[in-house]
Amino acid sequence: MFDATSVSPRAVTRLWTRPGSPVNCYLAGMPQRTCIGCRTVDDQAALRRLVRRGDVVVDGTKPRAPGRGAYVHAGCLGLAVRRRAVTRAFGAGAELDPSLSAELERVAE
């Protein structure tokens, strides 16, 4: 029997697209996203979606804002800023909304 935990992530990604694949059935429960701060894969529901509006990066989780998004854990926002992952995801002119930074840091506590 196929065991999805014994396969490399790259192989899982390749198998994900095959209809009827055991991996496709195994992972079909919740969409997975990568946190730009800690670079770990987690359920989409456990992460906050950041979206660029003009030159400001805002929370686009609920309601889901259109456009290019990046996902971050509430406690990883400071790490994402230190690693320049926010700038890498949204471009050089993007600045984090101060209210978003305060809100996400408060949620992490």
UniProtKB/TrEMBL annotation:
Residues 33-105 form the YlxR domain. It comes from the Bacteria. This is YlxR domain-containing protein. It comes from Tessaracoccus oleiagri.
